[in-house]
Design a protein that fits this description.
Elements (H helix, E strand, L loop, with lengths): L4 E7 L15 H14 L5 E3 L5 E3 L1 H11 L4 E7 L5 H11 L2
Parallel strand pairs: 2-4
Antiparallel strand pairs: 1-4, 2-3
Helix pairs in contact: 1-2
Length: 97
Amino acid sequence: MSITWTNEKRRLSELIPWERNPRQIVEEQAERLAQSFADFGQVETIAIGPENELYNGHQRLGVLAAQNGRDYEVDVRVASRQLSERERERLTVYLHR
């Protein structure tokens, strides 16, 4: 079944991180990411499922929350349907190559 994506906004507090997210951020990377937000704003959109589960953007979520608080509103791309675990894993690998 195909997936379509829509542009919406969400508060950071509404987003649900994926417990199995394989990527971790070190302090130096977080500082660079924070500086990029200060310089350019939110360029890359956070990808989520229909129930606000994060598919992509865990590091951005953490840095933005630290900078702006959990009530901060961000642009998100929302999938038309929930991804299976396998699809979610494949998407994560694809987006981080």
